[in-house]
Design a protein that fits this description.
The complex is a heterodimer. By secondary structure, chain A is an alpha+beta fold. Chain A is 34% helix and 19% strand. Chain A is globular and about 40 Å long. Chain B has two domains: 4-12 and 269-390, Aspartate Aminotransferase, domain 1, CATH 3.90.1150.10; 17-268, Type I PLP-dependent aspartate aminotransferase-like (Major domain) (Aspartate Aminotransferase, domain 2), CATH 3.40.640. In chain B, helix 6 (158-166) links the parallel strand 5 (140-146) and strand 6 (171-175). In chain B, helix 9 packs parallel to helix 12. The two termini of chain B are 36 Å apart. The chains are: A alpha+beta, B alpha/beta.
Chain lengths: 88, 391
């Protein structure tokens, strides 16, 4: 996943994760990278090329989005090296 | 002696097994602080909270779960609404049926310069819409009423009142402590601006839980300001919901249980709960009206009430009846003034009060029969005892 959505509040992050997973989009909640947004403690990783349908759906569900970012965290290398995804 | 719990209007008992399990699950499996950190235990805790919020939105037919904020109890929610909205010079209208959780904040706000009108209800605790209409003025900012009286169970026609005040740009706050989870509520269809509710009564959750529904467009000044886990670089309180009104760590364990209670109710259906409680009220009113020496309060028609009944036994104080019910029959009742002095003045039961039964989903017709038998015995005793005592 190479995209990241930041939120104003974890309330919206949790609802967004649920909405994405229910509709078959990849989604993973991670600690919010402060370099991208100072707002919410939790941010949602997703596939950046799906941003249009994802944002349309979130808007329709009243989920407030702070920002959408292209994001490939350095921690991915760490995960590859350790041969395992973060288990959520 | 099997215990019979008729004090569901104070707090419901028993709780569904899923509610008890949800508290253990939170401490065992989630355990973190919701929305504060991004680790899996924090996220799991946030999921618990948001799951409960979604359930409540479904139950109350709120269009957007973020318009529901969690509070410690209904009193907290009512204080948030009243102090968040009313300013000196504002006029507020309420009824003589209100609980002290409404009346005390309003009496205090009155000392700060808020104008208060208390509309009297009839002696059988019914509210006349015209008396509310007559109380409204150009400066009226808010109408606040209970949905169901905690003393006699009378239902207030909140939909009709909402329609009445909407035309006049007056906001409407409903105290649904006695009705949420037991009477169907649709905040959109009823047209409510604010709805305060308890989490530990009809919603079957743990004590220490409650909430406030705030319609989109209604802005309150927060009762408390502090950490929310959001907008952390900013030293001023966020304005977006639910964070604006949820400063400090929430009662996550309690909310976990509340969420489970709400799921339990959504499966049963609130209409089924209402039908069940109404049958118990009908059975009780029919039986008790045949017992000489018993005075029943409130309307005789069970469809005008929630699951609360109030009565007195001639020749006995409410506290005596309560003690005998508990010690000799294992029946838990509430006695006295029920935190609503003006409601008792309305019923002409001030300052003695009444005996109150609050029926719930887990009560049965057989339990009501046991109570009616008990009241027959107590009534005979009280009449005889009073005669001896006065002789």
């Amino acid at each position: 996943m190479d995209g990241l959505i930041s939120f104003f509040a974890s309330h919206h992050a949790i609802r967004a994760e649920l909405a994405l997973k229910r509709t078959g989009f990849a989604a993973q909640l991670i600690p919010g990278p402060k370099e991208l947004s100072p707002n919410c403690g939790v941010a949602l990783r997703f596939d950046y090329d799906q941003r249009e349908p994802v944002l349309a759906m979130l808007t329709a569900k009243n989920v407030r989005v702070d920002g959408v970012h292209f994001y490939r965290p350095r921690t991915d290398e760490w995960n590859v090296r350790r041969n395992g995804e973060r288990a959520m | 002696m099997a215990l019979i719990y008729f004090d569901n209007a104070a707090t419901s008992w028993p709780k569904p097994a899923d509610v008890c399990a949800a508290l253990g699950d939170y401490f065992g499996d989630a355990g973190g602080n919701p929305g504060r950190s991004g680790h899996r235990m924090s996220v799991a805790a946030a999921r618990v909270v948001e799951n409960a919020r979604e359930g409540l939105a479904e139950l109350l037919h709120a269009s957007d779960p973020s318009r529901l904020v969690f509070t410690q109890n209904a009193t907290h929610a009512l204080n948030l609404a009243l102090y968040g909205l009313l300013r000196p010079g504002d006029h507020v209208v309420t009824t003589s049926l209100e609980h002290n959780s409404v009346m005390r904040p309003l009496r205090h706000l009155e000392t700060l310069g808020v104008d208060l009108t208390v509309v009297d209800c009839t002696q059988d605790a019914m509210l006349d819409l015209n008396s509310v209409r007559r109380a409204l003025r150009p400066a009226t900012r808010l109408l606040v009423t209970t949905h169901g009286s905690n003393v006699v169970g009378t239902l207030i026609p909140v939909g009709a009142l909402a329609a009445l005040v909407r035309e006049l740009n007056v906001l409407y706050l409903v105290d649904a402590s006695q009705t949420v989870g037991a009477i169907p509520i649709d905040v959109q269809e009823m047209g409510l601006d604010l709805l305060a509710f308890s989490g530990h009564k009809g919603l079957l959750g743990p004590t220490g839980t409650g909430g406030l529904y705030i319609r989109e467009g209604v802005i309150l000044s927060p009762l408390m300001r502090g950490g929310t886990g959001s907008d952390s670089a900013n030293q001023t309180q966020p304005e977006f919901l639910p964070d604006a009104y949820e400063s400090g760590t929430l009662n996550v364990a309690g909310i976990a249980g509340l969420g489970a209670g709400v799921r339990f109710l959504l499966e049963i259906g609130i209409e089924a709960v209402q039908t069940h409680e109404r049958k118990l009220v009908e059975q009780f009113l029919a039986g008790a009206s045949e017992i000489s020496g018993i005075t029943l309060y409130g309307p005789g028609d069970a469809s005008l009430r929630c699951g609360v009944v109030s009565f007195n036994v001639a020749g006995a104080m409410p506290s005596e009846v309560g003690l005998i019910l508990d010690e000799s029959f294992g029946i838990m009742a509430r006695t006295g003034l029920h935190c609503a002095p003006s409601a008792h003045r309305t019923l002409r039961t001030f300052p003695t009060g009444t005996v109150r039964f609050g029926f719930g989903w887990f009560n049965t017709p057989a339990e009501v029969e046991v109570a009616l038998d008990a009241l027959r015995e107590i009534s005979v005793w009280a009449t005889k005892g009073a005669a001896v005592w006065t002789a």
